[in-house]
Write a structure and sequence with these properties.
Layout: E1 8-14, E2 22-28, H1 32-43, E3 51-56, H2 89-101
């Protein structure tokens, strides 16, 4: 059985100049020019849009879910967050006492 579908293009649009391009969907088209026309009709007609990108699906490279270890943090950076610090009970109880007396 032969493939009767046109290639898929992923569509990204920009609402205002300087804003990031956001993914909005995909279109089937014969070539990039047709993909831009179809994307304009489908995704830029009803919402603010100043720029469109269309990307052939074959051009997108994604990580595999099995490679989740590549997102693991190698160093402990908990010092950047408030939960990374241990607060003694005496300090916490004084804060509670002050809040109740106010």
């Amino acid at each position: 059985m032969t493939d009767t579908q046109w290639p898929i293009y992923e569509v990204f649009h920009q609402q205002a100049r300087g804003d990031p391009h956001m993914y909005v969907g995909s279109v089937h088209a014969t070539d990039p020019e047709m993909a831009l026309l179809l994307a304009k009709e489908q995704y830029a007609r009803r919402q603010a849009c100043v720029n469109l990108w269309v990307v052939p699906v074959e051009a997108i490279t994604a990580s595999d879910y099995e490679d989740a270890d590549m997102f693991a943090h190698e160093t402990d950076k908990s010092y950047r967050e408030s939960w990374g610090y241990k607060t003694p009970k005496t300090i916490r109880s004084k804060d509670v006492d002050q809040d109740q007396s106010s």
